[in-house]
């Protein structure tokens, strides 16, 4: 099962190929995607992305996770979150969202089992 291409990104809107939903923030993994609802884990810009935000993606068997910090990189990614991924043997890229989507799509096109979480505003 391959990771779906992120078809488009603009401020506050993301589209994933093969999915009719327009996301504000989204999670993607080999074979799927869904809304990333920060309320599920109590995530805020600071302290930022928590391991709980990534558990679902990790459980899909990804080898790499790409984290999009937002257009202005307002979303923080604590060292403990990066450590969580590394301890699970997963490579991690933390980037501004436009760059993150570009890297994610490149990896997905190469057949890498890649997942990601992306914030499409600030």
UniProtKB/TrEMBL annotation:
Matching entries from Pfam families are given as: DUF498 (PF04430)
Q: Where in the cell is it found?
A: Cytoplasm
Which keywords describe this protein according to UniProt? Cytoplasm
GO BP annotations, alphabetical order: positive regulation of fat cell differentiation
Keyword Cytoplasm appears in the UniProt entry:
yes
TM ranges are: none
Q: Which GO terms describe its cellular component?
A: cytoplasm
| Domain of life per record | Eukaryota
Q: Which family does it belong to?
A: Belongs to the AAMDC family.
Q: What protein name applies here?
A: Mth938 domain-containing protein
| Organism field | Nestor notabilis (Kea)
């Amino acid at each position: 099962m391959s990771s779906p291409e992120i078809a488009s990104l603009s401020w506050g809107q993301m589209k994933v190929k093969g999915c009719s939903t327009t996301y504000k923030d989204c999670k993607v993994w080999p074979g799927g995607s869904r809304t990333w609802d920060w309320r599920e884990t109590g995530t805020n810009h600071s302290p930022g992305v928590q391991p709980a935000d990534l558990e679902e993606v990790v459980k899909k068997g990804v080898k790499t996770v790409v984290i999009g910090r937002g257009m202005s990189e307002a979303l923080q990614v604590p060292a403990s979150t990066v450590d969580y991924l590394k301890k699970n043997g997963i490579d991690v890229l933390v980037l501004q969202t436009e760059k993150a989507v570009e890297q994610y799509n490149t990896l997905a096109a190469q057949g890498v089992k890649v997942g990601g979480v992306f914030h499409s505003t600030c």
